[in-house]
Amino acid sequence: MNKIVLVLCLVTVSLFQYSCKQEEIIPYKDEKPTQVETLAVEIINSEQVVLTAAVTYLNAQAKVVDHGFDVEYYDASGKRGVHNFSLGKDAQPGKIRFPLTGEWKVAADRGISYTYYLRTEQDTTRGNILNYSKDYANPFSIHPNQEFKVYGGEKITLKGSFEDIKGKYNLVIDINTNTSVTVPFDITDNNSSLQLTLPLGISANKVALYLTPITNNGSYPHKHYLIEVDILGKLNPPSNYTLSWIESLQLQPSSDSPTYPYFQVIIGNRMARYESYISIRDYINASEGDSYRLGYYNGRDTVIFPHKLQILRPDPTNIGFIENRIHPHSSAHLKNIGFNNIFGEVSYQFGSQAVQVRSNNQGIMSFSIGNMAEGEYPITIISNSYTISSQTTLRVEKLVATRIDQQNTAMGSEVTIYGNFINGKFYNVIFEENIEYGIAATDGQLRFTIPKLSAGKHKLSIGYFNNEYGEQHIVPTALSIDVALAQYTGFSPKKGQPGSMVTLKGKSLAFATVFFGDTFVFAYRMNPSGDEVQIEVPRYAQPGKYKISAQVFAHWMQVDDVFEVVNP
After folding, report:
1. Going by C-beta distance under 8 Å and a sequence separation of 6 or more, which residues neighbour residue 95?
2. Prediction pTM value
3. Do the domain assignments include residue 236?
4. Domain interval for residue 478
5. Where are the alpha helices (H) located in 365-412, listed in sequence order?
6. DSSP state of 191
7. What is the percent of the chain where pLDDT is above 70?
8. Final residue of a structural domain among 208, 231, 254
9. Partner of 233 for a Cys bridge, out of 119, 238, 257, 394, CB 3.0 to 4.6 A?
10. Of 209, 231, 253, which residue constitutes the final position of a domain?
11. 124 and 46 both lie in a single domain
């Protein structure tokens, strides 16, 4: 029994060890760099000057090998020198103090430049370089890491040590090289706070604050630098919150903003660099909708305007149709709308039929329909943000040819067809043997002349093209026309040279094919009816006698006379 227990224990221990080996431990790695800052000197007494600095962040993996101060000085003879004051390896986050005494106190009083450094096995981090001299030593000290971004009229509270300042110094704000202003200030909190209110209407983006001693001897006072302040601006809301997606957003700074303020404009969830004109198409996406929050960030505050930016939608009260009515299997054109009004992907319906809308090079939008029942229908635009239907409708009418008016049966004679033809639309009159293309409708009528057809009765159909696809839709009718047989009665003169002209007479000869002997010759129409034509005797014709014949489809026509070709 004891052996069994021992074996079980060993198995359990082995499994536990195996499972422990499988656990992955990811060591922590501090990626943030070490940060230090050189601070102003602290004058403790007449015997020493204390250099100060701060380690504001020490990287967790950093191994310090040295830290201290590098001091640039001048000896009594004016010779320049540099000295390193090493403080060893024990550097910790917080404030660092190092006193200069004896001859180094004397050197410091003459004037020094100094900087704090912290050296690790990987690199060396240095603070800013500061200057000190006894004659121009600041009568105050400023706590580090104070940053001010304020509006004109706001109060500033600066932390530090400000003993013996009040009543002895003026506070001056340098706005630019030529302009400065003196402002009142207060020392509070046991001389640890300096408070002032920034004036309104400062045009500069940044201003520097100084303390200058109050003097009456006319000498130019020394300026003791306090801090630099960023002046914030404000943007006025837009005059119009509704814009087309291709337009530019215009935002103007308020009158009390700096001349060149810093802004990031907020459009939805995106930030745009401020410019007088911002192309909104670069910052909007139709998949996110068509209204966006609008505001700005000025370096300190995020301001959202009270209304959203609305991308312009099509106006259902304004959308119309160029045509008054259309036939099935044809196209229609929209007015008072363009792709500038369409943001993102949309679909279209005419009535309940899905249609594709296109735009020509003049920006006119059009669509084609298939076979639709007669009725009046709006155009509907559907996006992921809205569904809009035009208040104006377009009527669909099936083409109906009602009657025909034919005064003459000869080819070339005028025929009128009556029906619900659309004014200005082009139709084709289709016969089995021929087609008359491109007849413009006027007042519900089609007027055309009888084309080349064989004699007899001919049924006709009406066709029209879909302008979008170039496909012809043909509508059969119960209408027909009668066509008379072409006639050829004679010619003159009966004799002539090669190249001379011969006139043929008859009925509908202009629609016939003419042959001089066995040679085809071109026939010139001589009158509107087409009853007379002229031909030219072939220039290569040899002297002799020739038959002149004419043909309309299978109908051949000849006369008994012959034409004699003579030599020139």
Report:
1. 39, 52, 53, 54
2. 0.66
3. no
4. 401-483
5. none
6. T
7. 93
8. 231
9. 257
10. 231
11. yes
Q: Domain tally for the chain?
A: 6
- At 244-283, the pLDDT tens digits run 999 999 999 999 899 888 999 999 999 999 998 999 999 9
Do residues 218 and 255 both lie within one domain? no
Q: What is the token pair recorded at 485?
A: 């047989």
Instruction: Answer whether 548's CB lies under 8 Å from 509's CB.
Output: no
386 shares its domain with 419? no
Please enumerate in sequence order all residues whose Cβ is within 8 A of that of 123, keeping only pairs 6 or more positions apart, or say none: none
What's 282's DSSP letter? G
Q: Are 475 and 556 part of one and the same domain?
A: no
Map tokens 């000197």 to a residue. Answer: 41
Q: What is the dihedral of CA 174, 179, 182, 187, to 10 degrees?
A: -10
pLDDT at 16: 39
Q: Are 108 and 98 in contact (CB under 8 A)?
A: no
Q: Which two three-digit tokens encode residue 498?
A: 């090669």
* Cα–Cα distance, 319 to 339 (Å, whole number): 13
Say if CB 340 and CB 244 are below 8 A apart: yes
How far is 226 from 207, CA to CA, in rounded Å? 11
Q: What are phi and psi of 539, to 5 degrees?
A: -70, -20
Query: Of all helices (H) and strands (E), which one includes residue 12?
Result: helix 2-22
* 491 and 444 within one domain: no
Q: Which residue has the tokens 């289709």?
A: 430
Tell me the CATH number at 115. Answer: 2.60.40.10
The chain-wide mean pLDDT, for the chain, equals 90
- First-to-last alpha carbon distance for the chain, in angstroms, is 146
Close Cβ partners of 382 (under 8 Å, ≥ 6 residues apart) = 346, 347, 348, 349
One-letter amino acid for residue 95 of the chain: K
| 370 domain-assigned | yes
